[in-house]
Amino acid sequence: MKTVVIVRHGKAVPFGYEDDFNRDLRDRGKNDAKLISTLLNKRDIQPDAMISSPAKRALKTAQIFAESLNFNKNDITEVQEIYEGLTTYEFLGFIQDLPNETETVFFFGHNPGFYYFVNNLLEHFENDMPTCSAVGIEFNVDSWKDVKSRTGKMAFQFVPKMFK
């Protein structure tokens, strides 16, 4: 069983679009990231790898998750293409290239791409991806190379407002 956890970054400041890459998290975004990551930790959902957009708001969200999940922040892999935008086909190729010793991988990034990834990896997805939501997708495969679109089963979706 292989698991992908897709996390949209926390709520960002509503200004600074002229330098979008460096937009920071609001306090709400930081608090929501702590809430969801603590919940994942309590449910023993642990990453073997964390991969993030290098944009400030996504990377800070990943770092908050890393702290809650006892994952070394220095081991977060930054992938510029997540910020720039990947097609679902490119994202799937990225997943298929993961090392097989990795069982659970967390991705941190942005909408609309992350919504499309979730929608195209799962058999069915009729929800939204608000800020700091986390969707766990399980694939009944032994190798990442066998992951195909629309074959994943939703293990969970946690949205901050579900817990407030």
What is this structure, in a nutshell?
Helices cover 32% and strands 19% of the residues. By secondary structure, it is α/β, with parallel strands linked by helices.
Give the strand order, joined by hyphens, for the main sheet. Answer: 3-2-4-1-5-6
Would you identify the CATH H-level superfamily? Phosphoglycerate mutase-like
CATH architecture: 3-Layer(aba) Sandwich
Provide mean pLDDT, rounded: 93
Distance between the termini: 31 Å
Shape: globular
Secondary-structure class: alpha/beta
Q: Order of SSEs, N→C?
A: EHEHEHHEHEE
Approximately how much beta-strand content do the residues carry?
15-25%
Rg over alpha carbons: 15 Å
What is the β-strand count?
6
The total count of helices amounts to 5
Low-pLDDT sequence parts: none
CATH topology: Rossmann fold
Query: What is the CATH domain class?
Result: Alpha Beta
**Percent helix range:** 25-40%
Count the domains.
Answer: 1
Please give the largest β-sheet: 6 strands, mixed
